[in-house]
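Appendix B. Raw example, untouched.
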Amino acid sequence: MEKTYKRHTIGSSFLVDGLGLHSGRPVKVTVHPGELGIRFRDQGNWIDAKPANVTDTSRCTRLGEISTVEHLMSAFAGMGITDADVEVEGGELPAAGGCASEYVAAILNAGMIECGELTVNGPFARVFVQELPAKYAVGSGEGWWRASYLRDDEFIGRQEMELEYSPERYARDIAVARTFALESELEMAKQHGLGKGLDQSSCLVIGEGRFLNTPRFHDEPARHKLLDLIGDLALAGVPISHLDVVAEFTGHRWNVEVARKLAESVTITRH
């Protein structure tokens, strides 16, 4: 399958600051218009947002020395931004409400402008990754994405979120879904220095038999899993609308592995 898409960057620079999602330290990110794809910098050289440049996926997605890029990458992909220069101060992106909505709002406020075209050739066969319980299938399509979140032994059970992609649906149904944590893991997370930039307004807490704070959707965990999946697969440089994706028991490690295989299975020409 070969298709050509408009490339877009932002109309003007914007800044988002706050506490790092995991570090809890003051950080800021400034996004500028660009024409060289998505690239990041933190006091050093520019690093392209590509699977090959991912250095860690243990609790977030890290590009080089810059942590927690997945929510901004998701917002870029969800709103159709293909090119931007991202400068980070503090080594990590802000928690920004634990989701992508603050980034989406900043993109909409900055506006979008065309900056060329890209032609995507492939994938000609489905990209599969299966490392049970994780399962992924990615192929050429029309922008149908589905992610599942499973906790069969708890009240959550099985949640599925399906997205028939449009920027409007992404902004309304996916971008606002917050990161989440299990009550049973909170103490361990604190001991490992994780989630320090989150609070009960930016993180959904799952307890035994109920949510400990008010969810935005009954299936908010599945929606956030899809948010992260979109952000990580965006590293392959393939527009959301070019793909059909089904994924189960997702996580950053396997998301990035799928992005790597997807990048290898397509040819992207920028012009």
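End of appendix B.
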